[in-house]
Specification:
464 residues, alpha+beta, Phosphatase 2c, domain 1, six-stranded antiparallel β-sheet, 13 helices, 31% helix, 23% strand
């Protein structure tokens, strides 16, 4: 930690590092991913939050980068983003937060300036219709454990609620209210609404190739620690519905441990790319616990995340965790439905048969801050100081893909060298093997440069 960590150095020191055009471009890039609301930066998908409380942590991180005598291109870009964040949060405008329900939107206007559990409120408000009530209860229960670590003076029982948001309905039809006490978040089920009897879920219907059943029995875990090049770790598998998946994961240059992994679960049409946060310690352990839970709860990524968080606490993993992107694939008559679940800075890209980018995920890391990584409730204060307040909140998106399209998910060992357009050029109009060979060669060239960013690399390519 820099000697600047405990002093408020002048922001002018930061601005002097860049030309105005640098600052403006970095600001435009940031605001493509975030909009401003009530002194909070909210991601475009409403799932992650940065508040003015984080400014001091951004200053510390920026000071550490300024202290480095030599900076890579990646670190210069990080310093620009940190500078923008500091100024943006100091001058945040107050604009409206969109909501599907006008009545809920009106209630949202009553929220006070940010406190620790506003994120939970917003997550439930916007996600209630996609979650069963039981899942919402689990979400609130775990987040209250996290929230309690911020609160040192708990008021006596009978405290007044600050905000009550009424009239929410879960996916399974339960009507409930949301109570924000500033010390925790509480659910209140409506007594005037009977909870419906839950129907047994319909079994998933897949269409298998003849003779493929034996291949679908075993998942594939790719986490090579020895190979010199990404291409050397490549593995291929078939999945249901004529889907072909190719994955690769390697340690990268000058790294001792590969803390990434790719997990392919053919029986569930599930693909997971994992990037453990080894810079904060215990990266291999954090990854291995998560891989075990993915394999235990195949096809249920939310349960795997909850079990991983509990597992981290049980083994006393006080630092580190994982960033992930999980892809579940289902065939729907004339298209593939992709359900993406993301936590942290693992990236994904969907391109059509003509090479047009149809979807690009939002980077859920700003500077050194990972906004929603999967970690345990026992995370150190240092991790909280780096922004990990939204533990294991899965950002979810649903995409449509047609036969002939290609989807790829990849860790930041690749994303920190190549933007979406560059990744597309590397993988388009090639076989999966040729695409991974092209990525492998490009990454190797980048990592061979002086002062290059070097990290573990993982990628999965799904061909429909």
């Amino acid at each position: 930690m820099s000697e600047h960590a405990n002093i408020a150095f002048s922001e002018d020191t930061l601005l002097k590092q860049f030309k105005k055009g640098d600052f403006d471009r970095a600001k435009a890039s940031l605001l493509e991913r975030y909009h401003e609301w009530n002194e909070i930066l909210v991601s475009v998908n409403e799932q992650s939050v940065i508040t003015p409380d984080d400014i001091e942590h951004f200053r510390v991180q920026a000071a550490d980068l300024l202290d480095q005598s030599v900076k890579s291109d990646y670190e210069w870009e990080q310093l620009k983003i940190l500078t923008v964040l500091i100024y943006q949060m100091m001058n945040a405008d107050k604009t409206a937060l969109p909501a599907d329900n006008p009545a809920i939107n009106k209630q949202l206007e009553t929220l006070d300036p940010p406190h620790a559990n506003q994120y939970i409120m917003r997550r439930i408000i916007h996600g209630a219709s996609q979650l069963d009530y039981q899942a919402i209860e689990k979400f609130v229960r775990y987040q209250n454990l996290v929230l309690s670590s911020y609160i040192t003076n708990v008021p006596p029982e009978g405290q007044k609620n600050l905000v009550v948001l009424e009239g929410l309905v879960s996916k399974d039809g339960v009507h409930f209210d949301l109570l924000d006490t500033a010390y925790d978040v509480q659910l209140r089920q409506r007594t005037d609404q009977a909870r419906p009897v839950e129907a047994a879920p319909e079994p998933t219907q897949f269409h298998m190739k003849p003779g493929l059943a034996e291949e679908l029995l075993e998942p594939v875990v790719i986490a090579d620690n020895e190979a010199r090049f990404l291409i050397n770790t490549m593995q291929f598998t078939n999945m249901h519905d004529d889907i072909e998946v190719t994955g690769a994961s390697y340690v990268g240059k000058e790294r001792k441990h590969n803390e990434d992994a790719v997990v392919l679960v053919p029986s569930e049409n599930q693909v997971v790319v994992i990037d453990a946060m080894g810079g904060y310690g215990n990266g291999v352990d954090a990854r291995d616990v998560f891989v075990d839970m993915v394999l235990k709860y195949r096809g249920d990524i939310e349960q795997a995340v909850l079990a991983t968080q509990k597992g981290y606490d049980e083994i006393g993993l006080e630092q580190g965790g994982v960033c992930i992107i999980n892809t579940d694939i289902r065939w729907k008559e004339d298209y593939f439905r992709l359900t993406l679940s993301q936590a942290g800075d693992v990236h994904a890209l969907l391109i059509d048969e003509h090479g047009e980018i149809k979807h690009e995920t939002v980077d859920e890391a700003i500077g050194h801050q990972v906004v929603n990584a999967v970690i345990g409730a026992g995370a150190t204060e240092n991790q909280r100081a780096n922004g990990w307040k939204n533990f294991g909140h899965l950002t979810q998106a649903t995409l449509r893909a047609k036969p002939g399209w290609r989807f790829t998910a990849y860790s930041d060992g690749i994303a920190n060298h190549f933007n979406a357009e560059q990744v597309k050029e590397l993988i388009f109009n090639k076989t999966a093997q040729q695409a991974i060979a092209a990525v492998s060669q490009a990454v190797d060239l980048k990592m061979s440069q002086d002062n290059a960013y070097r990290d573990n690399c993982s990628i999965a390519i799904i061909d429909f």
